[in-house]
Design brief:
78% of the residues lie in helices and 0% in strands. The protein contains 7 helices and no strands.
Length: 147
């Protein structure tokens, strides 16, 4: 069991003892998604795999926040936002955008002429530490500045 999965399991048990129903439900759902991913991959997950499951959960909740906000359901949007904050605790420390910008510039200097090529070179270095959308936005800015 990866250390991240063990940490989530430990916090699930603590929330069960504290009878913290919202946290219990969130962590139970997260562990279920992790187990499903293990079944899908047919192996025990590494921390990177578990982080990817957490990221997907955050992404789903952010999409829900948009829909709830558009639909005038601020109460549900607030609940989803609280879950995003709770899930973000399981992610590694964020990368400084300037560090991403330096890597993007290096990829462009090395010959990457479009966003896809830049992403292909930069994403592996930041996997699990930065979101693709953030890297993509920086890549677009830098490519536009070169033109």
């Amino acid at each position: 069991m990866s250390s991240l999965v063990a940490r989530i399991q430990s916090e699930l048990n603590a929330s069960r003892k504290a009878q913290d129903k919202p946290t219990l439900l969130l962590l139970g759902t997260l562990l279920s998604e992790i187990r499903n991913r293990e079944i899908e991959l047919r192996r025990e997950l590494t921390d990177d795999d578990a982080i990817e499951v957490v990221r997907r959960g955050i992404k789903k909740r952010r999409e829900s926040i948009e829909m709830y906000t558009t639909g005038g359901r601020g109460d549900l949007a607030d609940k989803e936002a609280a879950e995003v904050v709770m899930l973000e605790r399981y992610l590694p420390a964020r990368v400084d955008p300037e560090e991403i910008r330096v890597a993007v510039r290096a990829a462009i200097e090395a010959g990457a002429a479009n966003v896809g090529a830049v992403m292909g070179r930069v994403m592996p270095a930041f996997k699990g530490r930065a979101e693709g959308g953030e890297i993509s936005a920086i890549a677009r800015e830098e490519l536009a500045a070169r033109r």
